[in-house]
């Protein structure tokens, strides 16, 4: 599908009057061309400065033999010299550094051919004595063999024998068979060896070379493959005749090209290394192949042909005058295409061609006899019809000589070399382009003719032959057919770089006479390319010229310095300002790409015009910003920019939103980040596998902007307003794909236009979730649901849509709109970790109901299957409604042809369909649950059930009372609430069975609803209350007993529930005596005291029992000293203050003082020890031996590493450089993973266990000094000793009680001691928080990860110090330092802050 594009063409005029030029070689680094003429004049020409540096007449030098002719020349980069050989055997060397010419040797037998190896270490000479001489660059002869040598033993190779058609008996001899090696009868006896000089070509790696030579023994040219050591490797098949001596080995090493002239055709034969023929392609008959040249990338084969009189037509004088041409051939999909043909000027001919093998670019240099040096820079293009119109057929044209093969990919996909149709040209195609309006094709041909063909067929519209005096059409490149406002005038814009020294933009205006099928040139305008200060000699070259699709009166072109300009059409009127610069975005100057872009295009992104450029280093630019650094092709869709990468990924960039090019340029191949919203959706994972923030995985699961493609794929064409993207593989075949981004964009466009039929077929073809039909715009879908059913009348398609429905919004989860990005939901909107983003409850039921309404409205019988599907799909499924619908259909009778009544066929088909959707056993249960035995029989007949079983069961049911019958059915189906309801209606004789069912199945709530207005409700309430009492739910049971008017059980339940006031009221209802009431109150008071409700207990004792002493004891036991004092004073029982309150207050004071002192001492000790442990760990330098350390082996390193973990754990030291809110860190013991692990408890080597089978045991934390978990133990112990609000309230009450009883001194001592304890705790909170942060498991795992990275970095640094020089060491240290910083930045520490809650507890009266 690719065509040759001539990016740059140069023409240099070499000095005249020196004879005819014959050979040349190039110094690509200094851009100097060294040439030889037939008069042996050596010329060095600088193509950059356009001047001759050296001119030497070799005949006047004493070093060249008299009458010798230079027949080979080669530039040697390593020696910085030019090697020349003459036919008389002279070997000359010209040094470009010293400018000295010397003869380094003479081969007395003469030299016919010279070839240097690709590494310029070896030289092969073919002499006139039919020998090959091998020399090195120091001119030492390494070997000499006969050029017609045979293989060892004179045998043919096994492959040749196998592939030969001769009988095997002929090859039984040890030497070549005489029948095959003898010269043909009647062959001339003249020495054709000199007339057909040998040719030598090396393989790209320099390990083999091939030599073609005329073998007098067989009378034909033979190919021989030689190894680098001058050992014969293989010989071509002896049966192949007609080979010519020109030979060229493909640099990739796969094929050897050689001309093969046969009686009826002329071809280029391709051979393998073993001499077997691999293929061929035909060339022009009658032409003589003078040279073959491969490009450096092995993609192009250039043929230098000499044309004879029989080649050209007798009436074509121009063609006869061109004595030689250069053809450019390319193989794709196992077919050879003639991509271009180069011609020289009249009365001139090509003498030598060479590809620049020192450059990755395909640069072909051509030297003519009269001294014109042409330089052609080639690139590969996919030529397709441009435009975003929906009428654009996306036609791609392939050039193949005189055939222009056309394939409209909107209609069909045809791989090359085939095509949909082709245009037959009069001569080989030189250039072509498409019209933007009707997509016709204009072609320029090498015979200087122009032709226009229809865009949709192979029909010719017009053609004309242009005089070469007016314009040389084959010199034009970058042809653009520009649409004009004048319908009768057509305009072509191209670049001419061969007619003049500077590139010129040529504008050709012409008219087409359809009646005469002719073309008339109206005007030709030439405009010089703008000069560039960055180019040498201010001579800029146009590297690319493209059409501006939005402006018909201008084109864009790029120069070889990356600058972009406008060219405005002159339309027959010349004006000076036809070229204007393309300004930058801020209009500060001429726009330039950061590097020269071989391919570029203009488009609009987010409404702003931008330039898209791709250079030969795989960098894709949007204006001057790098969009991707691994791009190998790109194309523009009407909504997307698509490009492929060298990592085999196709990316789609929407043109409707601004691009985040920074993230794209640095994003790996397996991810993408088109907008800021995408990278905000990334979910960070903690080491334990749990997300630090609760994002929804459904948001980031799918990325529709990327798609993996086959290795080496490139975009051939993108069909606008369609989903099709055609990729071409490296071997040439095509693959048409529909990227998800283009597919979804097209579907959205169709849905917006309510083209549901096309959208459905597109989604079905591309396997898109059918939920998207509704999720794209739910309100619009429901509004036009009638159109949806009308456009998709197929029953199967409707069933497919309904069965695909689910309660999830796929527009938020699966198919995020790249053209209209929406920010992710805020964290505050996420209520639960398990909540799924995009859930839409009730969606399935809503769509099913709406569709069913439409189906019924149109024709229920026609859409019976989709109607049934809507019932089945609902949640929960309405299977009973579906069965009733089928039952209604069965009620409709049909009369057969014989007058017999038959069951409705539609009902039978519907029943079969629903049985297909749902398990028939489940349907049987549903039918049974409808209590309709006809329906049950209908379903049972479709099942595998035994009629003997279900018929007997149904008969038994029919014999029962209706309510008990339904109870039995519900009991069989285990529908217990319905069974209870039906059983309650069966009569009073079944009440006990109803009560038993309620208790057995715990149907208390259902029973209460069933008996809500019946007298049996109280019985059910008592049953429920008994159940609650058994489960210690006393309060609920008490109220149920109360509702059931069972006051005795209600009193006991209120008593157990602690509702003493309600219990007393129930006792009053039961008419308790005063003595019984007092006893009940005493029991209630003791019960409240046991429940630690001391205030309630005191109230009962004091108010209802009159027992002040027990009331005071309850107050004292609860620490309610003020209430106790008030009660004693109010009761005039001050004596009880000293006997009860003071005694217990003093005891409580002593206990609290002792507890506070003990806690203070213990906490202070832990605080001091925690500081020691924390300081020790921060200052600890871990023992971890580097691998390969002197005096230690792996075993010793493992042991020392394990021992270091006995005393302390590894720390990072200072964490100030860490990007974290915390300043502390944890550490870990270091173990060797090379030889096993050590147990810290016993130091006994244990065998490694499988991680997947290892049990997760909770680590027992001990507080032993020096233990691994000492710090964690201290932190937990200190946290438990921090007093909370309740403990502080107890101390506050105690202080106030002491003051009330006159013990202010004791109160002051208690307050001061407790205050000291609290101040110590406040002082320790910072250190405690640091240690708690360090021992947090998440932080420990994070630091282990960072330490491992640091250890690996140190190992890498040590290896670099051992292997690199001092200068390299400095660079590597800097790089590793940067890597270390980046490691710290990625470290995340979760800070733990420990605080103490305080209340107003102290008394400021002391």
Automatic annotation (TrEMBL):
The protein's name is Elongator complex protein 1
Return the similarity comment: Belongs to the ELP1/IKA1 family.
| Basic residues bias spans | 1244-1258
The record's listing under Pfam families reads:
A-sol_ELP1, Beta-prop_ELP1_1st, Beta-prop_ELP1_2nd, HB_ELP1, TPR_ELP1
Q: Could you tell me which species this protein originates from?
A: Heterostelium pallidum (strain ATCC 26659 / Pp 5 / PN500)
Tell me the pathway: tRNA modification; 5-methoxycarbonylmethyl-2-thiouridine-tRNA biosynthesis
Keywords (alphabetical) are: Coiled coil, Cytoplasm, tRNA processing
Q: Residue ranges of region Disordered?
A: 664-705, 1242-1262, 1360-1384
Highest taxon above the source species? Eukaryota
Q: Which residues form the ELP1 three-helical bundle domain?
A: 1222-1325
Q: Which residues are in the ELP1 first N-terminal beta-propeller domain? A: 1-356
Name the Gene Ontology biological process terms.
tRNA wobble base 5-methoxycarbonylmethyl-2-thiouridinylation
- Places the protein is found: Cytoplasm
Segments of skewed composition (Low complexity): 664-688, 1360-1383
Per the database entry, which stretches of residues form a coiled coil?
1139-1166
| All copies of domain ELP1 alpha-solenoid, residue ranges | 740-957
- InterPro entries in the record: A-sol_ELP1, Beta-prop_ELP1_1st, Beta-prop_ELP1_2nd, Elp1, HB_ELP1, TPR_ELP1, WD40/YVTN_repeat-like_dom_sf
